[in-house]
């Protein structure tokens, strides 16, 4: 197994090889077929010493990478199960180093001037939309304004998200200043969210350790009261979950993104959390002052409703990049999990015209594997990596001008993806039967 080091611009480079032992594959749920024993990646913890304090590790320990495997033998399909069908839960026949080698070197280069140009563009659009809507003040305009401005708030969030990853620039002070301005303006605590998002990237695809829309084990799911399940799995409530998540996280986890003493954070990160919480409170004060000057109804129209549209964007995009594929995707525990295998369960999505507006965040697989690649290089990097990824890359369904099809995908997934088994190291989502749902409701 190769131990790799992620540099700021050049990505991953092999340092040395270790050999992992062989072990039997854990029993898995459908749709995977029974498979012959195969090599199991070793496990270890990821280093917590991050350059730029970004959301993704700058050093990946041996658990975070797959062994550099040889190409499959002639006639042997990658990820093949016993019956010859592709098994998405099988260890891939390639490693991170092979994916990285396929990506052009210039894709790793961050241009702070180019990054700032996107910030200036988006801020200008946000101010222009607000000025135009306030001047026209027509109920024919307000719904269009809410949709457009909420989408632009989401675009601002994505740029702040890039600051948190260090893909905005190589300057940590610039990343922090811009990230705080962008995220505080839309009521997101920059460092608090950045650190929990780092946890998400470190543990993507892990049942217990993932942070964003992770699966609920069956026992935990069935212990939830009816109303909690209703709010988590019934539209439109999941699209409004982000503010609650910031204050209380997900079922089965505790902690607040605003509290420096939360178990989300290390003691050394206390000052970061205090800074972000203070910035968030300052924005709340600005909004309160504007509400006093302008009145609650104008502020609701100018800021409140667009904020809710932004929250819906964030929840929908985050969910759909890890759920809702036409084939069931695996989630992992224990020694079956690795950084590579977890990252390969993520999904790219096509958002039509909005791809450019929200900075190609739909190009998500390569972002998860190599989060320091700037957003403006993600499409090129993905195309270069596809031949290596093979069937482990799930091609997104093409969208029209607007991604209306994704609402159907979201609704269907929320009906089917309820929980995973509380046993097994490779598991798949299962749906609760209507009978058990009715029984609990009657209780």
From TrEMBL:
The keyword Transmembrane applies. InterPro entries: FA_desaturase_dom, FAS_N, Fatty_acid_desaturase. Residues 71-87 have a biased composition (Low complexity). Residues 64-87 are annotated as: Disordered. It comes from the Eukaryota. GO terms for cellular component: membrane. The chain crosses the membrane at residues 231-248, 273-293. Keywords: Membrane, Oxidoreductase, Transmembrane, Transmembrane helix. The keyword Nucleotidyltransferase does not apply. One of its GO terms (biological process) is lipid metabolic process. Pfam families: DUF3474 (PF11960), FA_desaturase (PF00487). Belongs to the fatty acid desaturase type 1 family. This is Fatty acid desaturase. It comes from Zea mays. The lineage of its organism: Eukaryota, Viridiplantae, Streptophyta, Embryophyta, Tracheophyta. The gene is FAD7.
